[in-house]
Automatic annotation (TrEMBL):
GO cellular component: plasma membrane
Species lineage: Bacteria, Bacillati, Actinomycetota, Actinomycetes, Micrococcales
Nucleotide-binding is among the record's keywords: yes
SMART domains: AAA
Name of the protein this chain belongs to: Macrolide ABC transporter ATP-binding protein
Gene Ontology MF terms in the entry: ATP binding; ATP hydrolysis activity; transmembrane transporter activity
Location of the ABC transporter domain: 5-234
Amino acid sequence: MTELLIADGVAVTFGVTAALSGASVRVAEGEAVALIGPSGAGKSTLLLCLAGLLRPDEGIVRYDGIDLTSAGPDELARIRLREFGFVFQGGDLMPELSLAENVELPLRLAGIPRRDAQERAERLLVHLGVGEARTRRPDEVSGGQAQRAAVARAVVHEPAVVFADEPTGALDTDNARGVMQVLLAATRDVGASLVMVTHDRSLASLTDRVVEVHDGRVHDVVGDAATEQLGRMPAW
Ligand SMILES: Nc1ncnc2c1ncn2[C@@H]1O[C@H](COP(=O)(O)OP(=O)(O)O)[C@@H](O)[C@H]1O
Ligand SMILES: [Mg+2]
């Protein structure tokens, strides 16, 4: 398998707090990896470094052969916009836009004409089970619906890697599992790798591999945990 994303010996210090020290992780093309560990372990910091959103004090982060720790701002912006997708805990959709308009954004930013972007966004929202809510704003839909739209926004431009930080953290158990399954299926559909932070072991076990983060280090690879075969959704 081709390794697409690599962090090697990454260290990040905030003031006197060592958030990461010597953290290393490798993500293969198309692989879904869960970063698991207690609060304050350094999971979000590691995700930010992998996504080129935070430059570590030490170590290397390489995406598709490009060293993100030495890449310039234009190249980093291009990679984040075109090749990465992001889902956070919630509340990060644009509040004044409808779900569909939120999902259109990455396509419009990539220069895709309005009508094509609208069509693709709508088709994807239908595919992910929130077609009927597409004209509503994020504050007019449930948390689960908003997160499905956030997943759509993260994959609509067919990125190479999707980063998700506690994407189901604000949802109840049933909704969390539903959104998790949509995230995994949508990511697989576009052939993207997934790097997902969670502290929920049962959700983590749905990914291909679970990586344990503790005290700023990647301690333990729990192993290939493809415990549940998710049916592939048809391509939209
Ligand atoms: N921007 C920041 N400024 C200061 N300290 C931070 C910042 N971000 C994270 N930290 C600290 O770094 C450590 C790791 O944080 P984080 O990566 O958010 O952990 P996790 O996501 O596993 O809960 C924690 O001690 C946290 O308080
Ligand atoms: Mg966190």
